[in-house]
Amino acid sequence: MDFDWARGDVIVVDGTEVARAERSWLRERAEVQIGPELWHYRAEGGWTRSSLVAEVDGVARFTARRSSLFSTTWTVDAAGDQLEVASAGFFGTRLVVKRAGTVIGEVSRSGIFTTRTRLETSTDLDVPLGCFLLWVAYVELNRRQSSAGSSSAAVS
User: Fold this and answer.
1) Is 104 helix (H, G, I), strand (E, B) or coil?
2) Are strands 95-99 and 102-109 parallel, antiparallel or unpaired?
3) To which H or E segment does residue 146 belong?
4) pTM higher than the cut 0.85
5) What CA–CA distance (Å, rounded) separates 13 from 45?
6) How far, in Å, CA of 126 to CA of 9, rounded?
């Protein structure tokens, strides 16, 4: 399956529009309309923002947690299904999605000059879970970009 956070904040799966999304530019929040359900994604957990939550009607359906401040691996709990989103390589421009230690997908940016994410999986995923994984990857890749930018600014 191919999940793509496409232009115009549309989420496309295998070429078909499945959701519309609206991200907050100042905070790590998003609203995603998947069919009749309006999902709310947000970061929580104090100043480290070490937890991401997806909820519908005030009920948390999916969570993603980092084990520590310096960890870049997210453990995703999706209604009993445990997944992991982690670095794919040394430079950190790609992420992998694992289930029980086996890679089932890879996340990258949709293009060179964009923050939109794209997820390609070897197994089928439910649309709500695929959309949440896109957002987890978006948050992680943006945090890396921000910390790299602040590190290089501090060195200058």
Assistant:
1) strand
2) antiparallel
3) helix 127-155
4) yes
5) 31
6) 19
pLDDT tens, the chain, 156 aa long:
999 999 889 999 999 999 999 988 777 899 999 999 999 999 987 666 689 999 999 999 999 998 777 777 999 999 889 999 998 876 667 999 999 999 999 998 876 767 789 999 999 999 999 999 999 999 988 887 655 444 343 444
Query: Which tokens belong to 68?
Result: 């520590």
Rounded distance between C-alpha atoms, residue 92 and residue 86, angstroms: 9
Task: Enter the CATH code of domain 2-155.
Answer: 2.40.160
- In degrees and rounded to multiples of 5, residue 115 shows phi and psi of -100, 0
Residue type for position 58? G
Structure tokens at 27: 């905070």
Distances (CA, A) of 134 to 62, 67, 154, 156: 13, 20, 30, 33
Residues 95, 109: contact at Cβ < 8 Å? Answer: no
Amino acid at 125: L
Q: Give the domain ranges of the chain.
A: 2-155
